[in-house]
Every structure is written in structure tokens, then in C-alpha cells.
Amino acid sequence: MTNRIRQNELKIYLSDEEQYILDKKWQLSRMKSKSSFIRHLILYGYVYHVDYEHLREYNTNLSRISNSLNQIAKRINTTGSVYDADVKEVKELMNQVWRSQKSMLSGQPSIKQ
Hints:
The protein has 4 helices and no strands. By secondary structure, the chain is mainly alpha-helical.
């Protein structure tokens, strides 16, 4: 215990309702410990969770698109010819990128202070 960085204990009493609210807010924050959640509240006045799931989906889609573009480029380099089907596929892939970006940006919550 003497090796602790934080040596000052804080003990507070909460009503059942306050305890319930604290627990719910802590769960929503997705922080690992209640202590770190409370410290963050004390130091910064707020805690918010940013959901990056849409970015994971976006990156997955971009990876699929880039793989398709690489296959098209390899086919063009191998044959020395550009086919209409390849051009159409590239255009469709670029449309997917734009749709994906638009979808990602429209899903962003606005942060108000």
C-alpha cells in the first residue's frame, strides 16, 4: 500500500438513488474502474464515451474497396488493357467510399457545451 501513487482515500455517502445514478453513469462511460471514473469527473467535470464502431465498419469497407482496386490494377498491369467493366467497377467503388463517408459523418453526434 505504501507504493500507491494516490494515498488519499475519499469516503462519501450516497442515497440509493444517487448510488444508482452513479452506477449507471459509470457503466455508460465504459471506464474500467469506478475510481478512475470519479477521478475523471473531479478533474475534468465530465465524462463522455465516444463510440468508434462506425469507424471500424468504415475501415473494413475501405479495406475491401482497396483490395478490389488492387485486383483491378493487377489485372490492368497483366493484360496491358483497361476494360470498361474495370472502369465501371472503380467508379462504383469510389461511390461506395463517398456513401460510406457521408453515412459516417451523418451518424456523428454533435457535441454541445
